[in-house]
Amino acid sequence: MKTYNLCLLGFGNVGRALLRLLQEKTVELRERYHIDWRLTGVATRRLGWLANPEGLDVSALLAEQFEHIQTVEAGNNVRDWLAAGKADALFELTSLNVESGQPAIEHIRAALEHGAHAITANKGTVVHGYHELQELAQRQQRRFLFEATVMGGAPIFSLFASSLPAANIVRFRGLLNSTSNVIIAEIERGKSFEHAVQTAQELGIAETDPSADIDGWDAAVKVSAIATVLMDAPIPLEQIEVEGIRHLDAAQVQAARAAGTPYKLVAQIEKNEDGIKAFVKPLPLPAHDPLAAVTGGSMLAHFELDVLPGLTITLDVPDNGPAGPLGPAVTAYDVLADFIRAVQSEQRV
Question: Where is the signal peptide (predicted)?
């Protein structure tokens, strides 16, 4: 049984959740998937480049007992660090750069060139570097995987890759941003926009700076990723019509809910002989629209295919717990699932 050396770039909430999940699943990984693992690298702005090919103390890391962690010289850049940790897989969990996808793209490139599988939750790597990184992964006989980038917890990319061969997407509609769903729901209950944002932050749904969510850019990046990967139709962000929920009129939102036509921040992609068009914008939806029934922090993706009239994937969060399973633990699960897929592809060779 091979022991995989894992390097973790980014040690925020998702990174911590991933390490806890790896600990919880250690026995299952060994017995069911014939995978053993050790953490041989962690890198953050705060900690610097930590590595030890014999393994870092995961429990000490999670307890922030950094003085107990034994390390070796790891240099001051991603390539030296990967080499010092003798990485078999990189988990790239750094923050999104909407404009360029850097430095995450360079991190993935470095991992693949090193000979490691590269697994990320960073949407920028898909939007700005998908084809280059996939081609590099194929040449290196490694995997570049990114299930956590869109609708965390729902198997969007892996479903099409493994279960829907020769199925082509003609049209996509979805609700891809849970923060906007929660904010609109709070406005429907009578809160001002500012108080609705505050509630979403208190629930752990919204970031301290929620601009990317409420202005539509988080959903737009996901739209670009879906178009690029699943429709083979890369669409730059500047060609997506983007309108957020910041300027929604509260009275109008409440009236629409009372009339049975609630507002949702809708993401749509449509492909035809003239090309591809995409938008993200708030729309009132008729009661019969499946998107209208989505509540709280839930999300939904609806695909119209050339071989199927419609396929809907829903990530449901109970109304009594808007934060629900969405968040670091779900993102961490997607990353772990990608790691298992990468290893299984290697085992089949």
Answer: none
Q: pTM surpassing 0.90? A: yes
Picking from 162, 161, 152, 102, the residue whose alpha carbon sits closest to that of residue 127 is 102
What CA–CA distance (Å, rounded) separates 190 from 249? Answer: 12
131 phi/psi in degrees, rounded to 5: -65, -45
Instruction: Give the CATH number of the domain where residue 72 resides.
Output: 3.40.50.720
In order along its 349 residues, the chain shows pLDDT tens digits of 899 999 999 999 899 999 999 999 999 999 999 999 999 999 999 999 999 999 999 999 999 999 889 999 999 999 999 999 999 999 999 999 989 999 999 999 999 999 999 999 999 999 999 999 999 999 999 999 999 999 988 999 999 999 999 999 999 999 999 999 999 999 999 999 999 999 988 877 888 899 999 999 999 999 999 999 999 999 999 999 999 999 999 999 999 999 999 999 999 999 888 889 999 999 999 999 999 999 888 899 999 999 999 999 998 876 544 444 457 888 999 999 999 999 999 887 6
Q: Which residues form the domain of 182?
A: 161-321
Same domain, 165 and 292: yes
Find out whether 169 and 303 touch, Cβ atoms under 8 Å: yes
Q: Tell me, rounded to whole angstroms, the distance of Cα 157 from its chain centroid.
A: 11
Query: Are residues 315 and 254 both part of a single domain?
Result: yes
The DSSP result for 198-224, as a single string, is HHHHHTT-S-SS-HHHHTTHHHHHHHH
Q: How many CA atoms lie within 13 Å of 171's alpha carbon, on the beta-carbon side?
A: 7
- Kindly state whether residues 310 and 340 are assigned to the same domain: no
Decide: helix, strand or coil at residue 4.
strand
Q: Are residues 171 and 311 in the same domain?
A: yes
| Largest pairwise CA distance in the chain | 64
